[in-house]
């Protein structure tokens, strides 16, 4: 049995640059892993050719619609293997939350099966396979901090990255990423790419306060229009925490960055006064002890 962690991500920037002829939107984003994670356990099934998936989670399909199962199918076919696999997913990342939970699971399956199979593919090759599953999967192959462009699948690694803690609030509703992208109006396009300005500030060692003003998300007004209760929770989160709050991806998860764990704990306690799904996490950089 082999274990792989699947890390959630937040968007520090998300600019939508336009709609492409293939129907996807051209985006420019700073993506950052956080140490809120799922655990994926993998093993070969000796006497079966099936992909069997189990999980303690009741809110996701465990059949061929699950991105983890799709990832296993893609891997086996690309590696020319006819083998059975068992996937056990311990789900901690909230579902349909704008935190790329499904993409993270798919990426963990690709990395894990690659280890089980004796590393037939490089990480870059796994990212190419991942791009066929979903736009966020390549980022989740590498984790850390990166600029993601194209439809989100083109990854430029960012070093150094921001060191901080994050408090997340997941509003009690599902948001469809497709619906949010389909509801974008002409005014929502920013025609700005804030990612390089932000990563330049990381390189200069700027403080969290100096980074804060660049955090942006062009999808935030779209999701707030579609789901006014998210806008209402955003206002409440800002007034209770006394800090700027932002939305990740297409939402509805809201987050605020804090410099220390103790500051994060104070905000966490305050938010728990009115919201059930609140998380305190750390920005995660691979190979730096988390
Ligand atoms: P993104 O921002 O990339 O759209 P998200 O965090 O908003 O991702 P997910 O948690 O990945 O959303 O879930 C989106 C949809 O994908 C849900 O409807 C869910 O049923 C489906 N799904 C498929 N596989 C998984 C998985 N392994 N974990 C969670 N959801 C999954």
From TrEMBL:
It catalyses: 4-CDP-2-C-methyl-D-erythritol + ATP = 4-CDP-2-C-methyl-D-erythritol 2-phosphate + ADP + H(+). The keyword Kinase applies. The keyword ATP-binding applies. ATP binds at residues 94-104. It holds the Pfam family GHMP_kinases_C. This is 4-diphosphocytidyl-2-C-methyl-D-erythritol kinase. GO terms for biological process: isopentenyl diphosphate biosynthetic process, methylerythritol 4-phosphate pathway; terpenoid biosynthetic process. Its EC number is 2.7.1.148. It is an enzyme of class 2 (transferase). Residues 210-274 form the GHMP kinase C-terminal domain. GO terms for molecular function: 4-(cytidine 5'-diphospho)-2-C-methyl-D-erythritol kinase activity; ATP binding. PANTHER family: 4-DIPHOSPHOCYTIDYL-2-C-METHYL-D-ERYTHRITOL KINASE, CHLOROPLASTIC (PTHR43527). Pathway: Isoprenoid biosynthesis; isopentenyl diphosphate biosynthesis via DXP pathway; isopentenyl diphosphate from 1-deoxy-D-xylulose 5-phosphate: step 3/6.
């Amino acid at each position: 049995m082999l274990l792989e962690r699947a890390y959630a991500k937040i968007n520090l920037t998300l600019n939508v640059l336009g709609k492409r002829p293939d129907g996807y939107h051209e985006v420019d984003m700073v993506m950052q892993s956080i140490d809120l994670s799922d655990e994926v356990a993998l093993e070969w099934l000796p006497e079966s050719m099936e992909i069997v998936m189990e999980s303690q989670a009741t809110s996701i399909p465990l059949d061929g619609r699950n991105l983890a199962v799709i990832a296993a199918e893609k891997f086996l076919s690309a590696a020319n293997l006819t083998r059975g696999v068992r996937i056990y997913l311990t789900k901690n990342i909230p579902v349909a939350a704008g935190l790329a939970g499904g993409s993270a699971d798919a990426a963990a399956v690709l990395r894990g099966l690659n280890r089980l199979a004796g590393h037939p593919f490089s990480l870059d090759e796994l990212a190419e396979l991942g791009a066929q599953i979903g736009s966020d999967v390549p980022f989740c192959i590498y984790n850390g901090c990166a600029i993601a462009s194209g439809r989100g699948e083109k990854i430029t690694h960012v070093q150094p990255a921001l060191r901080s803690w994050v408090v997340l609030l997941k509003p009690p509703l599902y948001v469809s990423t497709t619906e949010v992208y389909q509801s974008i109006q002409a005014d929502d396009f920013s025609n700005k790419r804030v990612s390089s300005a932000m990563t330049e500030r990381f390189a200069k060692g700027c403080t969290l306060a100096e980074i804060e003003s660049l955090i942006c998300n062009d999808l935030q007004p779209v999701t707030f229009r579609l789901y006014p209760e998210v806008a209402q929770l955003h206002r409440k989160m800002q007034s209770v925490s006394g800090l700027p709050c932002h939305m990740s991806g297409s939402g509805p998860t809201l987050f605020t960055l804090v410099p220390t764990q103790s500051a994060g704990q104070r905000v966490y306690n305050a938010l728990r006064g009115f919201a059930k799904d609140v998380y305190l996490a750390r920005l995660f950089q691979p190979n730096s002890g988390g």
